[in-house]
Amino acid sequence: CSEWVDYSPKDDYRVTDQDYLKSSADYQSMAVSVYTPIQWLNQLVPVGDIASENAVAGGENASDVLDLQNIDDLTLTAQNGTLAELWKASYEGINRANYLYQYKDKNPAGEVIAFPEKEVMYGEVAFLRAYYYFTLVKVFGNVPLFMDRKLGIADSRTLKQAPKADVYAQIEKDLTNAIAVLPSTDPKNGKITKFAAQALLGKVYLYQNKFDLAASTLKSVIDGPYSLVSNFGDIFLQSGENGAEAVFEIQYSNLSPYYNWGGVTRGQGNLAVQQCGIRGLTGNSPYAAGWSTNLPTQDLANAYQAGDKRKDVTCLDIEAYKNANPGFGITYQVAPYKNTGLYNQKYLPRKGESSGQIELNYLNNQRIIRLSDVYLMYAEALNRKASPDDANAQLYLNRVRQRAFGDNAHNISATGNTLKEAIWAERRLELGMEGDRFFDLVRTGQAATKIKNFVVGKNEVFPIPQAEIEVSGLVQNAGY
Amino acid sequence: RTTNAQEILDQKVSINVSQQEVEKILEKIETEANIKFMYSPQLIMANRKVSLVVKKEKLSTVLEELLKPLKINYEVVGRKILLKRLSPKTALKMDVEDKLGILESNIVEQTIKGKITDAENNETIAGVSIAIKGTTQGTTTDANGNFSLVVPNEKAVLVITSVGYDPQEITVGNRFTINISLVPDTKNLNEVVVVGYGTQKVTNVSGAIATVKGADIEKLRPVRPEDALQGRASGVTVISNGSPGSKPTVLIRGIPSFSGTDPVVIIDGVPQTLNDFNSINSADIESMNVLKDAATTAIYGVKGGNGVIVVTTKSGGKNQKAEISYSSNYGVQQVMNTIGVLNATEYAAILNEGSLVSGGGLIFKDLSTVGVGTDWQKQVFKDAPLQSHNVSVKGGSEKVQYFLSGGYLGQDGIVGGGENSNFNRLNFTTNLTFQIAPKLKFLANTSYVNIKSVGVQENSFNSIIGSALNFDPTVSVLNTVPNTVGKYGFSNLLLSEIFNPLTKLDNNYNESNGNKLYGKLEFQYEVIKNLTLSSRFGYTNFNNTYKSFTPLVFYGPLNVENTMNADGSTVTGRHNSVYESKRTDNTYTFETFGTYNFKINNDHNFETVLGISLAKIAGDEINGSRQDVPFNSWTFADLTSATGINTATNTNAQTVGNGQYFRKNLSYFGRVNYDYKDKYLVSFSARRDGSYAFGIDNKFANFYAGSLGWVISNEDFFSVDFLNYLKIRGSYGSIGNENVNPQYVGIISGGPSYAGDANSNGYTFGNTFTTGSTVGSYANTTLRWEKQLQSNFGFDIRFGNNKWSLSADYFDKSVDGLLFTPSISLYLGAAAAPTANIGSTKSSGVDLNLGYNAEILKDLKLNTNVTFTTSKNLVTATNSDGTAIIPGGSYFNGQSQTATRFQQGFAPGYFYGFKTNGLFQNTAQIAEAPTQTGAVPGDIRFVDVNGDGQITDLDKTQIGNPFPDFTMGWNLGITYKSLDLNVFTYASVGNDIYRAYERNAIYSNKFRSVLGRWTGEGSTNDANNPRFSFVDANSNIRVSDRYIEDGTFVKIKNIQLGYTLPYSLVPKKVVNKIRIYAQVKNAFTFTKYSGYDPEIPGGVLDTGVDRGNYPQARTWSIGVDVRF
């Protein structure tokens, strides 16, 4: 009677890999979940500003949000949960993508499952894998690279790091493949389009200082269907999501309220929104209370010229706002740690935009690539390519500035190196608190001069998670 | 004749009998005249039948009339009347006279009557031998424990002996009724102990077993039987808390694993779990045996690794008259102590200071108006009743024996009182035995239990206790602010997380209601003499319904967590909700085994058992919730009346969930016990276990154990007068632990994941949530049980005329293949690594039990017992490179912290954090010290453990151990005449406690130690008392030894003083015995620990982490035991 103790997962109503990928619906369902981990990367946005001179970690006290504090002060150790989560989320995405590639031609049962949308679907998967690898390479540098399959338990502790160049080559390859099959537009907001892939590829080229390739690739996006939103502040409203300027946004929603405090970044909501809210805020303003982390610095606020409409959209001076709007009856708690008096208005939590466990379910999409970013990247590529085209570079830089000031009076006519500096400065103002700054400073070699405590040859990348060093025997980045 | 005698003889009596035995007539007269006759039935031939009709005649006349024809003389002695036969020449009298050499004229023959009872449970004992010392005369008690015996004179000495009891000698004196209670002889040669699939003579046991008797359990009257094991069973560590009905931590011989340390519980042969101890009525328990070593547990194979608790419930005896017992107990529980927090003025002052130091303004402008405020602990703790009532009846005929019982136990909680936390249990048990045919017996044990309970949020900073400790003391109890809803006051400083504990209690609505049916059906067939086949079906069926209601609540006008506005309206987007679940657990075990006992050459004794067992454990739950309960009221809190409907933006209006599990086992087992002349003992057992949960490569596992014993005192050469008994014994064997779940490569589908790995699916496209799927787990086909090797060495001795006994054991066990989640490469992604058999632990320790039992003075009996338990535990491996670490003991004090670890090279669940070394007194000290970011004078100086010149996470180290170095129990029983006193003291030494109930928010209340804070250079160097500021850049609140306290304690757990009413006060013919008693539980605790209660249970990784643990209550109670 030894069959008494035989076990089949079906006894437990469990679906296993042997039961799956038997229909197009199965493939498509798995493709949806390749998207999922990009939501888990929401901390990349606060990290990108906190690590730079744009923002401080804040929080309740010095022991609160310790991982972000360490990033803020660059007192980084390899034991940083936020970084480990970025690492793990990226690799989860890569493994999910790889599983689909593993069974692209034949499913686990050896059958061919063909369906009309298959090529496009694999284009999305390719883009996503490229996005995960790009995240890894810009945050960590040399990382393990694998494409053919989802790793099994036996693969633990076997992989070594690939040089950055190899990782970038694979990213370019995936994006090129994606561009070839993706549609120009998708009726479902949030699906990856050809232009998103081109914009990302342009950025990837820029990060490698491949300016000619960047320029030509970004031009395709500029020629695409996008236009700048006239009122800068509207971009960051719920009504502005997936708007005219949105090339690539990571979608969040409050439609599937999440309450797992054991994995706060892993829901459909955007945790980074709750984080930057004003502590103990009450009253009738549109804003909701939050945790006073990721606070913009006075340095960032001071960088805006008078008349720049982006200043208030980027840095909300709560005391000024309170005084300007006595009708709101605002009370709030001064940020208890590293108070700057300023809050990240682009992602400030707003009433009614969350559901369920309020803290974890803000619907705010993360604006990853906006048209103005494409303009500034394009301008930079034109300015820095082998045969510079400063006239066109000025044109696209000034389109961004014209919107910011509402006039042409602030146009820039500089050329050459001055123009380059102006484009870089503009990126800070335009994209402030959107998670781009630190990586821009590293990419452009300005980090050491702009960021306190920045050590050249070390802080260009973050430390690889200690667990991965210990378990997998990877080589830690220099200086950590 | 004295006046007195004359008065007696002048009493008027009426008798009307025809052809009755003289004995019966005398009884009638006894009742009528309130006198006692003393006589020897044989001598007066009391069974002669006569008739007698008298109406209101003097007693003397009646006696003349009755006795004269019978040739009986009488004499009044006090209120007694001595009857003597006129003619002395009877055979019996002659015999006695000859033996004693006493002349006829001196003989005052007496008939002694009496009843023999068990001193521990007061049950009557049949078949007790009563002999007259120096003669061959004697008798035995009948089925009801009664005897009567003629003795020659008052100097005769009765020798009372019975198997299983200490012999007694009693001089008759001038008594005619002698009721004797016999003390059970725990060292009795023929006493048997219940082991796996059978019983064994105690003296022939060569393994390690601890026993707790029903009588000891009765003295404690515990809510759960584990409480009776604490300190009474050596080798067992029990850590309990005070939440009504809650399960304690029970460790038998150390901590083999980081999860699943619960021992197996066997109730009347049927496997159950420790959870099932919530439903057994401790009054029904006859005995509990704890099987500790491999020799005794290997027959339970893969389930024996954490030890086995064998519970035997009461049953009726053959030809036993129905005996009814009733017991009732009522008590009041109260909190033992409170924790020192600041009063309102102190709180206001410290907030002002903290604010000023960090550059802010005054928070309280005028301290003189603040007052002492509210003591929230006083508001939260209530005196709460605890009561139990039991009635049972047992007895039997030749063919049917029965034990029936019914019981009720009601415990209200001291946190918030009975309406907020309680535990109510109703038990009905019938244990029946039928002798169907001469060789066929059928046993049916059936218990029905109903448990109803209500609970409060526990063991966190925002629990009821956590709120009482941390809430703003300046707030008034009641809400006095006009135009705001809410009965109780609110804080304008604490705006989230911590609320008025009374508001929380006021909105605490939940109810659990469970019905359990469990028991067994068993056939025993005696194939030939000494060969018995048993087949039994054990089952448990548990159905539980649970409901909770989360109402809309207003916490204060500024509170950010309000779900209700100040005017009573609903905050936009918020809802109340009701949650209901229904759960069913079904367990059955089907076992068939044969036992064959035989002798070879009369000296070689064999006891064998061989059998097979099939088991299935299964359960499922379905639950649902719905928002919008009408009138925000518990009255309407039901899925039926709630009206919430899911919408695109609110998918939680109606939810449904479920869970299901099952587990199957197939086992073969056998054992041989052998002894040679009760001197040399050998035992060998084996089990082969199959589990559906093991990997496909390892479906079956084999377990073996053997033991040897030598009863040296049975050797001819042994002649140490002082030592009455000496046995040495040793055992070795393997046992297992089956805390494995089957593994498979699963596809997970849907949306957010609430599993530990939070491996979510799905994505939002165009404002529509789309589910997704992915590969979410791994399979390890080589998965197997945790394998444990245990050796045990021990001895049992008795000395000083058997009054002293000592048992001692040393054990050593190593667990390998410990189920552990390995550290896997992070680049594998988010899915949780599958558990694998990669860890190992070692434990060793000593169990001691010293007893003394004797009558030390006339009528003064003393029995006392001391147990001593140690275990040293070490994690010897987690995975090959030691990188796998399980952190635990998480708590929140402004950030999520973990305080414990399961890690290679350390004790399981040790406290892990920073070491402190006083306070920085000035900036020069900070400059000299290893780099410590954010430190200013008055901050804690942390120790640079790794010596790298900076204070980082790498400096965290071992800062304490929650498990005691040793525990001791001391049970003292004193009986003086009808008074009995029982005192039980328990001590735990060397256990550390991590204080984790301090929230440390800016506006949370502070603990009194803050009054001794650093206020300037030289003020204090105590790392427990750093400066106070709103800004804590140094992170003084990080996990450090600042929060570690020595939890060593000595608790007087139980004091019971009982009084058995003298026979004269007992209503005769109805009641046999009445005992009343007063009891105090948790009378005193001696400890340095500053919290409520140093007993902090939890899993291995949560034990000793005090997040505001529900403390045990001091209970004052009175009770009565009646036997009919």
Task: Sum this structure up briefly.
The complex is a heterodimer of chains A (480) and B (1124). Chain A has 480 residues and is mainly α.
Your description of this structure?
The complex is a heterodimer of chains A (480) and B (1124). With 480 residues, chain A is mainly alpha-helical. Chain A has three domains: 26-162, Serine Threonine Protein Phosphatase 5, Tetratricopeptide repeat (Alpha Horseshoe); 183-252 and 363-459, Serine Threonine Protein Phosphatase 5, Tetratricopeptide repeat (Alpha Horseshoe); 277-351, no CATH class. In chain A, 43% of the residues lie in helices and 6% in strands. Chain A has helices at 24-39, 44-50, 66-73, 81-102, 118-140, 164-181, 194-207, 211-222, 271-275, 298-303, 310-314, 318-324, 371-384, 390-405, 416-431, 437-443, 447-450, 466-472, and strands at 55-58, 143-144, 161-162, 246-250, 293-296, 315-317, 342-344, 366-370. The longest helix of chain A is centred in the first third of the chain and has 23 residues, at 118-140. Chain B is mainly β and 1124 residues long. Among the domains of chain B are: 3-86, Phage tail protein beta-alpha-beta fold (3-Layer(bab) Sandwich), CATH 3.55.50; 110-182, Carboxypeptidase-like, regulatory domain (Immunoglobulin-like, Sandwich), CATH 2.60.40.1120; 205-316, TonB-dependent receptor, plug domain (Ferric Hydroxamate Uptake Protein, Chain A, domain 1); 745-778, no CATH class. Chain B is 9% helix and 46% strand. Chain B has a 22-stranded antiparallel β-barrel. The longest helix of chain B is centred in the N-terminal third of the chain and has 14 residues, at 344-357. Chain B starts with a helix and ends with a strand. At the A-B interface, helix 1, helix 4, strand 2 and helix 18 of A face strand 31, strand 36, strand 37 and strand 38 of B.
